[in-house]
Amino acid sequence: MCNSPHNTNDLIIYHPDLRIGGAEKQIVLLIKGLLNKGYRIVLVLNWVVGPYLDELPKNSNLEIVNLEKKNYIALLFKLYILFRKNRPATIYTFLVGQNVIGLAIGKVANVRKIVWGNRVSEFSRGEFGVKGELAFFFERIGCRFVDRVISNSQEGHNDKRMRGVQVKNKSVICNGVDVERYKEDKELRKSFRDYYQIDSKDVAFGIICRIVTWKGVTDYIVAASMLAQEYHHAKFFCAGDGDETLIAEYKDVAKKLGVKIVWLGERQDVEKILNGLDLITVASSQGEGFSNIIGESMAVGKAIVATDVGDNAKILHSIGTIVDKNNPIAIYDAWKEHMNNRDLLFHKSSEARKKVLREYSIQSMVDLTEKAIF
Predict the structure, then answer these.
(1) Which of 93, 147, 187, 250 is the most exposed, fewest CB within 10 Å of its CB?
(2) Chain segment 166-194, per-residue pLDDT in tens
(3) What pTM did the predictor assign?
(4) Domain CATH for 33
(5) Is residue 197 part of a domain?
(6) Between 287 and 253, whose confidence is greater?
(7) What is the per-residue DSSP string for 152-197?
């Protein structure tokens, strides 16, 4: 339990915003857990926007600061004033850009401790353009001055080391899964399937992700077009928001391939979607650390097919099916195996949830993070 003076904040978390995303979800869960332990927290955002804001509790120990990012000079000045005011606090940042900025301003402000968060694994060089490469360069230079780096996956940790990010203190702390929200619910399943007219003979496949190129949505569409030709009882869904131009391109690809995909867009009821579907696919080609949707799907007891990216294979182990990345035929083959043996859709559900409860609880994530950052 935190015993800091009433006027001293213990932790400052710096992140761009709280739009839909894996890091954003974990930030909210961590804040809730630490507030329950009595810590005083300042959440600093470039813009106070995003649906996860509604999930943060109204608590006198939580302050949300909007930097109202208009230009970098104003942003850096506001950060300096905030960090200087809270020098005894730990600064915890989550993305490469924020890591570099947080370190630079934190050192100038002479804060007590600086912790970097790492939520991804390997990305292709140039994925984020010149700005991204500069951020990675300064990350390699600045890492020696950081007190600790926390990765949410072993592959993410390994990738940082390969990129030259060498730090004395490092931790791998897996994401926490909200097992009270993500669990088998027959009423949610019935509601979803009734709405989308999915009958008992149908098998509903889904991909749930932020719509960016490396999430493998094209591979999902191609695999769906192949399976649909053989199995008329296969139904396909895609949930998630992103670049509108890219989404339009994906819809056009599906139309040209003659496969019907229900595009659900951004949804706040992922637990309902998971209950309604039968098999979840993670088709990413890079970037994944600990995939939230895999943990949540396991908690609901869903069959999972995932590419061998990040810690997917480690998390799923014998519970799901791992396939090669950038290979829609491999996805199709795994789906076909499930269609031909429908027992595969259900027989590992209890085992999957037990693993989540045992290894990926929110409490474990919060306790390990508390130990690492304070």
Answers:
(1) 187
(2) 888 999 999 999 999 999 999 999 999 99
(3) 0.92
(4) 3.40.50.2000
(5) yes
(6) 253
(7) SSHHHHHHHHHTT---SSEEE-PPPB-TTTSS--HHHHHHHHHHTT
